[in-house]
Every structure is written in C-alpha cells, then in structure tokens.
Amino acid sequence: MTVMTHFFQNKLFRWPGRFPWARGEHSSLRANREYFRSFSQDRPLDEYEFVVVDTELTGMNQRKDEIVSIGAVRIRQMRIDLQNCFYTCLRPEQDLPKDSTLIHRITPCDTETAPTLDDVLPEFVAYCGLALLVGHNVGMDIGFLNKALRKHMGGILHNPCLDTMRLAMLYKETQWENFYDRYNLNVSYTLGDLSREYGLPLFGEHNALQDAMQTAYLFLFFVHKLHGGRIKTLRDLYMAGRGWRWM
Question: For the whole model, what pTM was predicted?
Fold first, then answer.
C-alpha cells in the first residue's frame, strides 16, 4: 500500500473515485484526474486552497433524487475569501417535491427559469479547480455531484475531500481523552448545533451558500483547535484523523 493510498483511506479524508477512464470524459475532469495522481500532503496548510461545498437536494435517495442548488466558498491561506463564492439554483428534471421545499425553501418558481446541470457543472468544476474539497458529511454532497458529473461530463471529481463531521468527532474524542467517565453520549453533530456550541458566526440553515459558509468557519475552527493548534501540514491533519487512541 502506497503512502498516498493509505493517506486517503483514512476516514477523515475521502477519495471520490479510482481514476476511471471514461470515454467522453470532459477535458477539465481529465486534467483534474491527472493532477491528483501524484499529490503531496507535506506542504503547510496555508499553501493549499480549499473549496467548501454544500448542496440542497430533492431528497436523500441518490438513485432518484436531484440537486436543486450548489453553494461553495473558497479558503485561501486559511482565510475565507468572501469575494470568491459560488452559488446557483438548478432546474431539476422532475417536479420539485413539496417535502423538499419545506426544508430548503426553494420553490418551483425559483427553479423554473434556473439553469440546468448541463449549464452549471463545467463552471463548478472550474471553480473547484485543484483545491481540496470540504463539506459537512461531505460524502453525501460528493456522491450526488459525481453522479451528475458522470452523466453530464463523463467523469468525476478527484479532489481529496475532508469531512467536518469527522473533524467534530475527532475534536470531541480528544477532549474526552483520559476522562472515560465524562463521555457525553447525547451529542449532536449537526452543522448548526456545532456552530452554536463553539460560538461561531451563525448563518441561515438549508441554504447551500450559507451552509457552505457555516462549514468553512467550522473547518477553520477545528484546524486551529485540534492538537492544541499544532496542525501545520496536511499530513498533520491526516495523523489527527487516526484518532486519539493511537497517538
């Protein structure tokens, strides 16, 4: 097992695919795939760019549900770039379920004149570029995005992904170290509850851009707090992901 394979099998990081060769693969996805064939995790964190992404969906079933909005914000030099955000509402192929509208408040009127995934995905891939992707329960968002990318662009994103939900679990575990009688089993890992618990700025919930912004603040909080602020490189972040029991 190579160092790279081992690095991205860690639960903190997710590797979206296995470099499939797809006929008709869009040139930007091909370039993305080639870049991440060799990737160093030994640079200081502030030398990497991160794109924090969130999606709103018609439902949670990846086989039949669709993306109705994508929001993303860029982190450069470990600072949120408020001038460089991505947001779009999308027109789904099927009618928008009423149940999903109650959650994200996106209505059929909002989607009626919205662009389609065919229009938006190339722009979104270009926005992500060669950044690492961050999300709260990121596997859900990347799963839906890669399903759409396979259909419309003939491939998937290969950007390594970091999960703030997993970071939250790690942070709480380190707080519990050597205090086995202080475990709190009634813990919430929702984005809003974690942000309130740690006194972070609060944004509106179930809006893709605002949730991405909320996740960006949470990500930076954990990076600065894990291991007492001793996370300096991407490899350090990976090592933190091994869990406190093996440190």
Answer: 0.85
